[in-house]
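[step 3/7] fold_predict: job queued, chain A
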Amino acid sequence: MFCIFEFSLQPKVSAYLVCNLAKPGNVSHNFMKSTLKLITFLIFACFLFFNCKSVSRDLKCKDFENGTFEFQDEILDKKYVIIRKNENQIEQVYDLKTNKMESESGRVMKISWVNNCEYSAMLDTIKSTKYDDLDLQMISAGGLNNKIIKIEKNCATTETSIGNFKKNFVICKKPE
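[step 4/7] structure written:
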C-alpha cells in the first residue's frame, strides 16, 4: 500500500513524501520512520529560520534613530561621527590618516523620519554655528534623503541622495 503526503512551509516551499506502508519490523518501516523524523526536523528548522530572520529585520531600523554613529568617506579621507538625538544631528569630522578631529562642523541637521527605515536631513540654519555654500546648495536641493537598505549587526548600508546624486554609505552605531 502506498501513500502520498504533501506539506507546505511558505508559498514557494513545498515537498511531497511518498511512503510504502509496510509491516512494523521491516527495513522499509524503520527507514520510513527515520525519514519522517528527518523531514519533521527540517520543517521545524526552516520555520525557525524564516520567522527569526524577518523579525530581526523589522526591529533594527529603529535602532538608528538615536545614538552615536560613524561612517567613512574614503574619497575625501574623512571619518564622520554623528551624534543624533531625537530630531537633531551634530557632525564631527576626522582626518582618516591622522585620526584627529578636524572640526566640530557646527552644523546641526534637523532629522525627519518618513518611516522606520527612511529619513531626511536638512541643515538647521538657526541652530548651526557654521555652514558654507555647499550646505546652502543642499538646502535648495531639499536636503539629504537617506534610506536604510541593509542591516548587518550594528551597521546599516544607507542610500543617501541629494537631488539626482546617490551614494551608499555604511554607517555603524557605536556602543553607548
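[step 5/7] annotate
The chain has two domains: 2-61, 65-173.
The radius of gyration is 26 Å.
exit 0
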